[in-house]
Amino acid sequence: MEPVQSPDVWEDAAASLARRGLDPSSFGRLVVVCAHPDDETLGAAGLMRGVVAAGGTVEIVLASDGEAALPEVGTIDRAGLARTRRAELDAALAELGVPATVHRLGLPDSALREDQLVGPLTRLLAGADAWASPWRGDPHPDHAAVGRACPAAAPVTAHGFGFPIWARTRIAPTDPGVPWDRAHRLTLSADDRDAKRRAIAAHASQSAVPPGGTRAVLSPATLAHFHGGHEVYFREPPPSGAPPELFAGLYRDGADPWAVRTSFYERRKRDVLLACLPRERYALAAEPACGLGELTRDLAARCDRVVASDVVDEAVAATTDALGGTPGVEVLAADVDDDRAIPGGVDLVVLAEFLYYLPAARVGAVLDRIAGALVPGGDLVLVHWRQWPAEAPADAATVHARVLADDRFDTLVEHTDEQFLLHVVRRR
């Protein structure tokens, strides 16, 4: 599969379009799922090195042994090629300085199917902090199958990423199917690039023309696409959003999982939010996903009535204990879709660290509910951490942009800093 574009095309796109940086040091256990030996080196060498350098561990899941390379060459000993490619993987990992555990699934090369992969991957991805695999949009059916299987198999608590391989040689970065809105860029050091070159060379069977063949799998023109200074990763968030039971487990036994009672980040965020409220007082406020009720207490001082709700019983109990008997405060066990969570006639709705946990379809439904419940001139406040939680289908910038583009609201306040994003919009 010869490249149809210059290596500079994706290098330039990575520098200009992948606006998020990727920090490997935050992943204690990374699992790289490969369709074939060499996927890990071509697509994720820098990521693996970064995780190991920060004290983390790397595991490789090898779906196939890559025995079907160059299928037109009938004289290749396929079992022998599989052995060679497994040995090349070990050599490449040694060149990278990555002491990875390798799990072999032994599935047939060039015939990988998503339904066959999900079961074993569910077991191997359990407990991972992050996973990476070939991108689901890559123009190789095995790469695409692995890329589709991983989000279905991975726990929602794991950060997921797809890396382009053949896409770098065959798909223009300007193609509308390339999800730059979810792209992360990893800049490789000189040492990273040197190690990656050596590791690619270790996959020698792929860069050599075999006896009886007319081409190599990885020609010099193809390899040039992987010698640059950037790796690209497309975030693959959980398709269904964060389940309530996940948060229930975090809140059990009186826990404060995000240190909302004690951390400076949480105190400062509440102070900034309150300072950004355009009115001194509100008649009726709704706060879905109220958590432990720390913000509820502050809102009660600015509102005649506050309806605080949460889908997690443990959070409702904690907020009730903290604010029970406070005049004008009602605490409910209710999901955001429940009419009681955002009653009609509210003039303030506050969504704090919540909206990005919902799948896109539910975000739209919640905005419809809020637009219908807010009185004309009522205010909606959004505040979210600017990092991308593993369990979240989108990040703060994405969900805020969706609200700002909604013509039912006018933007009044925008606050952006290195920690969180805050907007206040007003119902027309």
Automatic annotation (TrEMBL):
A molecular function (GO) term: hydrolase activity
Pfam families: NodS, PIG-L
Entry EC no(s): 2.1.1.-, 3.5.1.-
Keyword Transferase: yes
GO biological process: methylation
Keywords: Hydrolase, Methyltransferase, Transferase, Zinc
Domain of life of the source: Bacteria
SUPFAM superfamilies attached to this UniProt entry: LmbE-like (SSF102588), S-adenosyl-L-methionine-dependent methyltransferases (SSF53335)
Signal peptide limits: none
Protein name, as recorded: Bifunctional PIG-L family deacetylase/class I SAM-dependent methyltransferase
